[in-house]
Amino acid sequence: MPFGPVDSKGTELYYEDSGVPATMPTNYKTIVILHGTLFNCGIFRPIIPFADENASRIILINQRDYRHSTPFNKDELKGLKSGDKDKQDGFVRDRVRELGNFLTWLIVQEDIPANRSGNVDGGGIALVGWSCGNCLILPFLALTEEVMDDNEQKDILRRYIRSVILYDPANVAMGIAVPPAVSGTTMTYDTFAPIVSSYCDHDPSLIDYLESPTMNKFTDDEQVYNALAYTPSSDPNPTSDRIPSELFSKITEPLEVFDRSMVPTVCLSPELYHNYCIRAIQGGAFPNVRVEVMVCSRTIAVVVFGVYKIQRMLLENQILKKMENRRQASFHVWRDFNHCAHWEEPEKFIRLLSGVI
C-alpha cells in the first residue's frame, strides 16, 4: 500500500495511483482528488481505468482518519471539537500544511511533470475536491502560503498547481447556511449516503442560470428556494442503493469514524469556513491558479444553493467593482448527473474533468 508522509512524526496519507499514462509519459496532467464525507477514495476507483486514454495520472487520497491514513490523535480531536474558533482554525491550518507537504513530497518522489505552459498543454497538478472534500481545498487555497514555512516547498507548489476544481462543493465548505426547507434536518450515518446520492429535479431555469448567470434573474434567495427540489426523484434510485453491500462497506468508513471526526469537521464554525472561502476567492495562496466550479444538475438542493450563493456574490462584486484582484473562477453545469457522477458515469466524468483542468 502506498503512503505519503505529511510531517516528521510519522503521520501519513494513504493514496492510490493510476500510474504514468502510456499515452503521454513525459508531459501528462496529474489529477489529485480528495473525497468527501463518509466515502473514502474508493468511491473514485471507477475512473482509474480511463486515466490513460485522457493522458492523465490520477492520485486518490484518503484524508486523515479515513482508512489506512493516520487517525487523529486525542489532542487533534480535542481542537476539532473544542467549539473555540482559534483552536478550530489551528486544526484546519494543520491539515492544510499536511496537504501541502504531501503534494510536494509526491511531486519530488514521483517526478511529476511541471506546469510549464500556462495550462495550455500537459504537466502540473489539478487539485480536485468533491463535496465536503472542499472543507480542505478552500482553506488550502486561502492559507497555504502562510502556514507552510519552507519557501522551497511553496515555490514547488506555485510551479506545479495548474488548477483547482470544486466538484459539487458542499454548502458547509463555503460556510453557507442551508435553505429553510431543510433547516433542522439531520443526516444520520444510515441516511447520509442515500440522501447525498439521490437524484433531484430542480427547476430547469435555475440550472440554466448557474450555467450563465445574469444580474436580473434569481435576484433573491426566496426565488431560489422555490426553484430547488427537496424531495428526491424515484428514477433512478440513489446511487448508494445500487452498490452491493460488500463493496459499499469498502468505499465508506464505519460509524465510529463518522461520529469521531466526520460530523465534527462538517459542523466546524460556518464563519471560519466562509472566511476561508472568501480568502480563497480573493487570491489567498497561489493567486494565479484558476478555480473551476463544477455543479451537477441533479445533485442535492444544498449543493445547488451553495454554488448559487457564491456565484451571486462574485457577480455582485464584479458589478460593484469589489474584489478586483480576485482569482479567475469559472462555473460549469454537468447535465443529468447526480452528486456521484464519477461513480455513475466514470468514463464521461473523467473526459469532462480533463476538459476543464
From TrEMBL:
InterPro entries: AB_hydrolase_fold (IPR029058)
Name of this protein: AB hydrolase-1 domain-containing protein
